[in-house]
Amino acid sequence: MPKKAKIRARGAEIRAIFEAAGANPVEASLLQPAEVLLDLYGEDIRGRAYVTSDALRGEQMLRPDFTVPVVQMHMEHGAEPARYTYAGEVFRRQEDDPTKPNEYAQVGYEVFDRENPGAADAEVFALIQRALGTLELRAATGDMGILKAAVAGLDTTDRRKNALMRHIWRPRRFRALLDRFSGRSPVPASRAALLTNPNPMAHGKPQIGLRSQAEISERIEALREDAKAPPISDGQVALIEAILSVREKLPFALERLRDIAVDMPAITEAVYCLKDRIEALKEQGVDVDALEFEASYGRTSMEYYDGFVFGLYAEGRPDLPPVATGGRYDALTRVLGQGREIPAVGGVIRPGLLLELEGAL
Predict the structure, then answer these.
(1) 304 marked among binding-site residues
(2) 65 is in an annotated binding site
């Protein structure tokens, strides 16, 4: 049997498992509208999407994943609660590594249910794990909601918190901003000169770039306001660093985060959500004592994840991407729901990788 036919057949088997769990099969067009959707994927996928222009429909792209179009479909037409499954190819440029496929199959399971988010998280993880069969894979989990709650609770300006929130998925940039806002890194000489110049627009040089003079002036004023704001305290920076350093088996990670929450109450609700998820995972038969939790896990994945995140990896094969990934994306339903929202979580499996690891390709 040809390779693609084997992958499609395995994908159909996995989708049947998801259908048996109550999911309705759905399709998503190969071509998706790029203008709105690209902003939702984040920097990595934006740079790897195949985008083309259509005289009537504007910019279009080959679908880089299924989750965003499925959420869009549900928010327009879906009833509550709902479970969906799908199977098909996705497309992403791989210019940094031409050995990686730029087209591969995904099979997914998505849950839209506001009744019990912790139970829905556990349902998706456990079902994905069972659908992978007896293959020995390392499971990694995290929770973007804890770090986001910590940033939201910082004693600093909204502008600074918004900047940190935007760059949670870019660890180096996030670290640089945290150092700057806490006064750990000095203000660059060029910026210091700009801020002390009473009339920086009177430089006598031609204007370069797309920003108007009004936009440039507004940006300079924002930088001046930021320079007057007191630094984020060393104590709060230390608490953010303590959260990011949490990497334990799930029960021990919960205890460490509870200890941190004593000094940073802003994360208390998110930590309670983690506790509820652990109990729900136990009810699903998942061995939580052996399950890894890393507070910084998921920071280089899809930017629409805002809560529970997970991935399953082949031990001893660091050259391979995760065989399965998933997470919670409540905020995405808010963006695409035009005022409506519903808690949602999902995950995908790559049947091609599964077959490769099983020696069937």
Answers:
(1) yes
(2) yes
The domain of 7 spans 1-133+341-361
Is 310 part of any known ligand binding site?
no
Strands 103-112, 82-91: pairing is antiparallel
Neighbouring CB atoms inside 10 A of 199's CB total 6
- Residue 320 counted as domain residue: no
Q: Is 110 annotated as a binding residue?
A: yes
The answer on whether 305 is annotated among ligand-binding residues is yes
- Would the annotation count 213 as a binding residue? no
Is the model's pLDDT at 219 over the cut of 90? no
Structurally, how many domains does the chain consist of? 3
66 a known binding residue? yes
**Does some domain include residue 321?**
no
Residues 205 and 265 in one domain: no
Identify whether residues 1 and 42 lie together within a single domain.
yes
Question: Which region among 58-72, 195-209, 294-308, 324-338 has the lowest average model confidence (pLDDT)?
Answer: 195-209
